[in-house]
TrEMBL record:
GO molecular function: NAD binding; oxidoreductase activity, acting on the CH-OH group of donors, NAD or NADP as acceptor
Family: Belongs to the D-isomer specific 2-hydroxyacid dehydrogenase family.
Domain named D-isomer specific 2-hydroxyacid dehydrogenase NAD-binding: residues: 112-286
Species assigned in the record: marine sediment metagenome
SUPFAM superfamilies: Formate/glycerate dehydrogenase catalytic domain-like, NAD(P)-binding Rossmann-fold domains
Entry keyword annotation includes Oxidoreductase: yes
One Pfam family this sequence matches: 2-Hacid_dh_C
Domain D-isomer specific 2-hydroxyacid dehydrogenase catalytic: 9-311
PROSITE patterns, sorted: D_2_HYDROXYACID_DH_3
Record's protein name: D-isomer specific 2-hydroxyacid dehydrogenase NAD-binding domain-containing protein
Xref: InterPro entries: D-iso_2-hydroxyacid_DH_PdxB, D-isomer_2_OHA_DH_cat_dom, D-isomer_DH_CS, D-isomer_DH_NAD-bd, NAD(P)-bd_dom_sf
Length: 320
């Protein structure tokens, strides 16, 4: 692409050089600058003079945004914008955008992988085998097949719908709940949340984090779940009351949890969830694949170009 580069574009992520080079390759025509670290001070330095800001997993602190002297557009790297101070952006007259559904295939794939890993207790056998322990029980205690499970999805946007589609290949009975009611074009069955919590073997969360969805799963909801149920969360940590979950899992009132997200990230080393043997923890890697990197960077880069050239951004991407 010839001509002057568009930007500067402040990417709020401290990436190694090889990753920066990959992102630059997928964001052709943009003048990218990356944060040196995840500190608020380095974020503030990175956004100085930048016309565009691209926050990633650590978000965009309100103080950093207020100090951005030239910003015109904040574009979330991904779908969820719960860590962007949208009200501050509105006060400043700054447009906020996101990439809805772009990472859905990647997160849906990981969700299925986490279900299988937890049900078959793959991490346990991986660790044993790596340690030289060749343990082959006649039956792995508590291990189950995904194909025999009744799965309930709470939240049925792009990710939830792709998870449902993948589960049909495993012959699972799939139920879903979403606040807006029934969806068209799916073989999954709509159900109220109570039915999902009380009857499903797996409950998987696929909601954005808002004031309304905060602690969607708390002590009361966990108490409704089956004793042999698995809770899966690849959405946002704040969807679950972690204190209630720790108590439930410690006392083995449900079978386990598979978590790619936590209330506080990075998760603290002393978080009890990391020590429980009925928890499969991952470090929020739902969208982190080579394929999704190309797809995601290409999307937000295309939106920045469109905004810069006055062509506008698709309304579905604009945060209002």
């Amino acid at each position: 692409m010839s001509g002057a580069l568009i930007g500067p574009v402040a990417v709020l992520d401290a990436m190694p050089q090889d990753m920066q080079d990959k992102v630059r390759g997928y964001a052709e025509g943009l003048d990218l600058r990356f944060a040196r670290s995840f500190s608020e001070e380095d974020f503030a330095e990175t956004v100085k003079g930048a016309a565009y800001i691209v926050p990633r997993g650590r978000g965009l602190p309100a103080s950093v945004l207020r100090g951005a002297d030239s910003v015109r557009l904040v574009h979330q790297w991904g779908t969820g914008y719960d860590k962007i101070p949208v009200s501050v952006a509105k006060e400043m007259g700054v447009t906020v955008a996101r990439s809805p559904g772009v990472n859905a295939p990647t997160i849906a794939d990981l969700t299925i992988g986490m279900m299988i890993s937890a049900l078959r207790r793959i991490p346990l056998h991986y660790n044993n085998t790596r340690a030289g322990k060749w343990i082959v029980p006649e039956i792995v205690p508590g291990a189950r097949d995904l194909s025999s499970q009744k799965v309930g999805l709470i939240g049925f946007g792009a990710i939830g719908q792709l998870v449902a589609k993948r589960l049909t290949g495993f012959d699972c009975e799939v139920l879903y709940y979403r606040r807006s009611g029934e969806a068209e074009g799916t073989s999954a069955r709509y159900a109220e949340r109570d039915e999902i919590l009380e009857t499903c073997d797996i409950v998987s969360l696929h909601m954005p984090l808002t004031e309304a969805s905060h602690h969607t799963i708390g002590a009361a909801e966990l108490a409704r779940m089956k004793a042999d149920a698995l809770l899966v969360n690849t959405g946002r940590g704040g969807l679950i009351d972690e204190a209630a979950l720790i108590d439930t899992l410690t006392n083995k009132r449900i079978a386990g949890a598979a978590l790619d997200v936590f209330t506080e990230e990075p998760v603290q080393p002393d978080n009890p969830l990391l020590r429980l043997d009925n928890v499969l923890p991952l470090p929020h890697i739902g969208g982190h694949s080579e394929d999704n990197l190309k797809r995601m960077v290409g999307h937000w880069a295309s939106n920045i170009r469109a905004f810069h050239e006055g062509r506008g951004i698709d309304e579905s991407c604009i945060v209002t």
